[in-house]
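Good morning,

Both structures are done.
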Amino acid sequence: MQPSTRSILHVDMDAFYASVEQRDNPDLKGLPVVVGGGTNRGVVAAASYEARKFGVRSAMPMAEAIRRCDHLVRVPPRMSHYKEASLQIFAIFREFTPLVEGLSLDEAFLDVTASVKLFGAPETIATDIKQRILEATRLTASVGVAQNKLVAKIASDLDKPDGLAIVTPDLYREKLDPLPVSVIPGIGRETLKRLGEIRVSTVRDLRCAADRDLEPVFGRFTQQNRDRASGIDDRPVVPSREEKSISAEETFDQDLSKPGDMNRELLRLSDRTAARLRKAALAAGSVQIKIRRADFTTCTRQRSINPPANGTDQIYAVARELLDTWLGGNPGARVRLLGVGGGKLARAAQPDLFADDAADSTSAIDETVDEIREKFGSLSLGRAKTLRR
């Protein structure tokens, strides 16, 4: 059992990307806004609450979103603006506690157990954080307050938008039991389908189901999932989390069928991934490519590299070799999406003073490109080979 004295907040910004766009452009207020790719082949990154009334959700294909709402307003993502707002928000979190576990730009767990004596009851802290965020960013947040991370995360979604929900252990059955079983972390589409076959659709159904029914679905994780349905969770708030991978991917307006076009896009994605690695002062010990065919079949290929690297040419060389090998086994394939990622991340090593001139020259070029993009924007400079005809 988790310690009964813990006080955990889960703070989740309301429709974050879309809210930033509506804040910055008053003409968008009250309209069904989605942030995402500018083509019908992309996906929705965020949807305003006005868009959600039509059933539009994040991660939904843009074409489906438009079918549901024919007057949808599409806005291209502006990541630098979202990151700027996120930095302000996380700075506010750290005014109340150093134990902040970021899950994304707009979402975090806070352990305020030791902050109660200084700032008041957990619900008071939650209220103050909401107000500070509103004053600093003109954005609203929803907060869940509980004794563990699981229940706090569920609670933050109970009263959206601009909500505050407090769920204490004596309220677990009242608040959790009626909820769909999908609120339990780790229960995805396939598991939901199998649970439906044994008539488990709510948290209460999962909590009360017999082991003989659940074990074919969860195996050795049966008790863990029953504990979650009972509101039991002893995971600590981890204030620093190392990135496991850095990647870039893109869905194309038209399927790619020519290897030359695929290689051009692969270089562009390798460049974006390598730039992100360098900005984080990391190097990749493995390179992975992601390929989604026109029929939505998705494949991945990966290869380790030693020593770890973050140069564009180095990342691209491995990515292209992986793609060429895949194409050799899939001649004539049409590709809908490509992605390039770096894994097995390590801190980037200092430049080798005795490295050969070619390697040193490549590093200098990457460094110069990074400086120009930092000053003039990510689209200010690109490789000639990545230009579309």
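Second structure follows.
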Amino acid sequence: MNVEKILARLIGFPSVVGMPTDPIVDWIRGYSQTAGVEMSVLPGPEGDRSNMFVTIGPREVRGYILSGHMEVVPASEPEWSADPFVLRRDGDRLYGRGTTDMKGFLACALAALPRLAVMNLQRPIHLAFSYDEEAGCRGVPHLIAALPSLCEKPLGAVIGEPSRMQAVRAHKGKAAVRLEVIGRSGHSSRSDLGLNAVHAMAGVITQAAAYGQSLMEGPFDRNFAPPYSSLQVGVIAGGQAVNIIPDRCTADIEVRAVPGLYPSSLLEPIRAQLFALRDSGFEVAWHELSAYPALAPAEGSELTTLLTELTGQESFVAMSYGTEAGFSAGRHRRDHLWTRRYQPRPSSR
């Protein structure tokens, strides 16, 4: 089966983030079994989602991992002119949800699998497919935890995210949280009897914005743009009507941290400000939405040379977005685990 046919099958699974993975996992399992390779399905704690791990070649020696995620973000944009879960060709481009991020990479890896399976590989190639990357890399930590039982310590990993075939050697870390404030409702004419959750949250947000400005003062890593950690409030929700005292307000906040800083630790001042509201009679809650570590730059590794030879392009030192590579590097810090970003084409129209 050629790569375009494989991609069409993968696109055909509406494997949206947060949904069960059984259909796409079952198809990849069946395809891998026809090639006669060693394959493991690794259920996650959610019960309806699984990671996958395939080994081609000798398991008892160290090799490289080709890694990617199986799910996609929802295809709810009104600009879609056709079914986003049906692959279609328009000239020399292919369209469908996930053609780039990142079922295109999975299709390429799976298309190579039968050819790799009949080679006398001296070192193994592993395929590691995860779930719920788009929800904050929720599946891959369970996959990485299982690696010691699946293979020898990897020499390195290629994470197949899109970057026009230019290898990326580092990225920032991220943590996202939802703040919740619960006050006391009532009619706006008697504001003295209520506790306005929106007003209370506004104070926290004002302080968070000022704190975010302070992060611009460093520490710095000049490999990144911007070269400092950042914070933003992305979503605010609260209130029912202008004449009702709002008794609940939520705010979603994220930080992106340069290597060397723990993203979650950057949020601690915000946490302290939120919980200080309890002294004024409010109830508060802190909900962790997602978190992944940064990937620090790797210099002079064999994987640097290998990827330069394979792509014909020099590597790019760092990008400010994030990937699953930070988790991989956290477990195998001395193995020069990398991010390689795949596919020069846009994923949707």
